[in-house]
Automatic annotation (TrEMBL):
<keyword id="KW-0689">Ribosomal protein</keyword>
<dbReference type="InterPro" id="IPR002363">
    <property type="entry name" value="Ribosomal_uL10_CS_bac"/>
</dbReference>
<dbReference type="Pfam" id="PF00466">
    <property type="entry name" value="Ribosomal_L10"/>
</dbReference>
<dbReference type="InterPro" id="IPR022973">
    <property type="entry name" value="Ribosomal_uL10_bac"/>
</dbReference>
<dbReference type="InterPro" id="IPR043141">
    <property type="entry name" value="Ribosomal_uL10-like_sf"/>
</dbReference>
<protein>
    <recommendedName>
        <fullName>Large ribosomal subunit protein uL10</fullName>
    </recommendedName>
</protein>
<keyword id="KW-0694">RNA-binding</keyword>
<dbReference type="InterPro" id="IPR001790">
    <property type="entry name" value="Ribosomal_uL10"/>
</dbReference>
<dbReference type="InterPro" id="IPR047865">
    <property type="entry name" value="Ribosomal_uL10_bac_type"/>
</dbReference>
<keyword id="KW-0699">rRNA-binding</keyword>
<comment type="similarity">
    <text>Belongs to the universal ribosomal protein uL10 family.</text>
</comment>
<dbReference type="GO" id="GO:0005840">
    <property type="term" value="C:ribosome"/>
</dbReference>
<comment type="subunit">
    <text>Part of the ribosomal stalk of the 50S ribosomal subunit. The N-terminus interacts with L11 and the large rRNA to form the base of the stalk. The C-terminus forms an elongated spine to which L12 dimers bind in a sequential fashion forming a multimeric L10(L12)X complex.</text>
</comment>
<keyword id="KW-0687">Ribonucleoprotein</keyword>
<comment type="function">
    <text>Forms part of the ribosomal stalk, playing a central role in the interaction of the ribosome with GTP-bound translation factors.</text>
</comment>
Length: 177
């Protein structure tokens, strides 16, 4: 049995996570085996997220004053929490992939994204966005494109200038001959 001090520490940690995490998703994990639960934790960890199961009574002490308070009614029955701190898209993709199987026992309850309540459709849309690395690549291409276009234009301009000068030289040589 957990001591009062240990429970207070759990509540304090949860409150910090509720305040800091830009993505918090509540799930119902009833019927999941230990192997399935471990697979979910591993997949989320690979995506930079965390999955925790804590008693609802402790969570009720942790959410007041945090964005998660908006979904307090979802803290009924078996509740697992997904916390994503860095790449929320990768976490949403991992969770969607895990929930999309026909035999998946994991069910969506509620979510808070960047302080706003989100439904499962919004989480699916978030999961469809490009990853952080893909977005950075697109940004790099977008920033690099104008520079490349100017360089190409200047190169093309110099090539045309050389061609014109060669034509003028050939005409003068032809006129002098």
């Amino acid at each position: 049995m957990k001591t009062r001090k240990h429970k207070e520490q759990i509540v304090k940690e949860l409150k910090e996570k509720f305040e800091k995490a830009p993505l918090v998703i509540l799930t119902n994990f009833q019927g999941m085996t230990v192997a399935e639960s471990n697979a979910l934790r591993r997949k989320l960890r690979e995506a930079g997220a965390e999955y925790k199961v804590v008693k609802n009574t402790l969570m009720r002490y942790a959410y007041p004053g945090t964005p998660v308070e908006q979904i307090k009614d979802a803290f009924v029955g078996p509740t697992g929490i997904v916390f994503a701190f860095e790449d929320i898209v990768a976490a949403a993709k991992a969770l969607k992939e895990f929930m999309s199987g026909d035999d998946s026992k994991l069910q969506f309850k509620a979510a808070v994204v960047e302080g706003k309540v989100a439904d499962y459709e919004m989480i699916k849309q978030l999961a469809e966005l490009p990853s952080r690395e893909e977005l950075l690549g697109q940004l790099a291409f977008t920033l690099k494109y104008p520079v490349n276009a100017i360089a190409w234009s200047l190169e093309n301009l110099f090539t045309k200038l050389v061609t014109v000068l060669e034509n003028v030289k050939a005409e003068k040589e032809g006129a002098n001959a």
